[in-house]
């Protein structure tokens, strides 16, 4: 009798492990709701961290030797507090919210795709080689995050470029009246090609960021639950996202510096992404790739915690199981 009871418990446990996450939703509806939750969670996080993001961009645009014309007005120091205070004094406090609309559009497309399709690609890739790519393996997670990030970066590059342009400093005042005007101005520079300037850097950065952020979060959650250290809930979401935020800040900052420089290169100083990397190394040294790191960590760390906590909460409201 006891044996039958134990067997039933084991069977139930296995069944629950492989139970579909749809909770009554069709696969299409489930994927659409996950995309929506990812987009909303990231838009929420970006709205709160926009001041940190713009200070990071200004720091990354500052070149060695003399202040970059689009970096920070007259400030010799490049510390985040110095850049922030200088912006507030010379451009007004609301300058810290520059590019917010473009940032929201970017999160809707880029983050909606890279985070919202991660589980879809994870399931699809697992189906191609179930024995070689187990669902709890890191390799499957890396593949899924890479595909989702590549797709998201390719689609969202124009919004990312416009956001960077709107967040840069201009001595004669902001040249863009609105996000729409910024898109039109970039289009006049060279059409679709101008809007997709820096796509290679954006894609590399997107893959590096997503692999280190999403995979770290997924893997840490899985490990903590498997070892019985934590159970599903806010505490687990917060802890996993805190570690994921630091990891992705370390890995993505060098690529982010290059991406920002290339996207804001109106004078065409850089022939390519590789040329930009060589120029930075030659003129500023390897540590230049970590310009703005403290602000990158503050912004990306906070963004990671906020977006994953919001993402999981919105999923719950939609009746979808946690990630």
From TrEMBL:
<protein>
    <submittedName>
        <fullName>Mitochondrial carrier</fullName>
    </submittedName>
</protein>
<keyword id="KW-1133">Transmembrane helix</keyword>
<keyword id="KW-0677">Repeat</keyword>
<dbReference type="GO" id="GO:0016020">
    <property type="term" value="C:membrane"/>
</dbReference>
<keyword id="KW-0472">Membrane</keyword>
<keyword id="KW-0813">Transport</keyword>
<dbReference type="InterPro" id="IPR023395">
    <property type="entry name" value="MCP_dom_sf"/>
</dbReference>
<keyword id="KW-0812">Transmembrane</keyword>
<dbReference type="InterPro" id="IPR018108">
    <property type="entry name" value="MCP_transmembrane"/>
</dbReference>
<feature type="repeat" description="Solcar">
    <location>
        <begin position="232"/>
        <end position="317"/>
    </location>
</feature>
<dbReference type="InterPro" id="IPR050391">
    <property type="entry name" value="Mito_Metabolite_Transporter"/>
</dbReference>
<dbReference type="Pfam" id="PF00153">
    <property type="entry name" value="Mito_carr"/>
</dbReference>
<feature type="repeat" description="Solcar">
    <location>
        <begin position="29"/>
        <end position="124"/>
    </location>
</feature>
<comment type="similarity">
    <text>Belongs to the mitochondrial carrier (TC 2.A.29) family.</text>
</comment>
<feature type="repeat" description="Solcar">
    <location>
        <begin position="136"/>
        <end position="223"/>
    </location>
</feature>
């Amino acid at each position: 009798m006891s044996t039958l009871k134990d067997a039933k418990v084991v069977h139930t446990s296995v069944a629950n492990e492989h139970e579909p996450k749809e909770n009554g939703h069709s696969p299409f509806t489930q994927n659409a709701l996950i995309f929506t939750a990812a987009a909303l969670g990231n838009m929420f996080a970006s709205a709160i961290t926009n001041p940190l993001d713009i200070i990071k961009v200004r720091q990354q645009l500052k070149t060695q030797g003399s202040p970059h014309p689009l970096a920070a007005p007259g400030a010799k120091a490049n510390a985040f507090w110095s850049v922030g205070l200088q912006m507030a004094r010379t451009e007004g406090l609301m300058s810290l919210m520059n590019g917010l609309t473009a940032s929201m559009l970017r999160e809707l497309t880029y983050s909606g795709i890279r985070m919202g399709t991660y589980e879809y690609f994870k399931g699809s890739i697992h189906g191609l080689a179930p024995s070689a790519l187990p669902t709890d393996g890191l390799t499957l997670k890396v593949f899924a995050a890479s595909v989702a990030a590549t797709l998201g970066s390719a689609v969202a590059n124009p919004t990312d470029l416009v956001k960077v342009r709107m967040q840069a400093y201009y001595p004669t005042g902001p040249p863009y009246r609105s996000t729409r005007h910024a898109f039109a101005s970039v289009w006049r520079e060279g059409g679709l090609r101008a809007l997709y300037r820096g796509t290679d850097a954006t894609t590399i950065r997107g893959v590096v960021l997503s692999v280190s952020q999403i995979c770290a979060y997924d893997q840490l959650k899985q490990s903590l639950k498997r070892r019985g250290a934590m159970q599903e809930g806010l505490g687990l979401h917060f802890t996993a996202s805190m570690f994921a935020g630091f990891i992705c800040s370390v890995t993505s900052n060098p690529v982010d510096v290059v991406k920002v420089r290339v996207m804001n290169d109106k004078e065409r100083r850089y022939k390519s992404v590789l040329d930009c990397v060589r120029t930075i190394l030659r003129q500023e040294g390897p540590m230049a790739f970590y310009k703005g790191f403290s602000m990158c960590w503050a912004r990306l760390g906070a963004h990671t915690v906020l977006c994953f906590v919001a993402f999981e909460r919105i999923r719950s409201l939609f009746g979808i199981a946690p990630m």
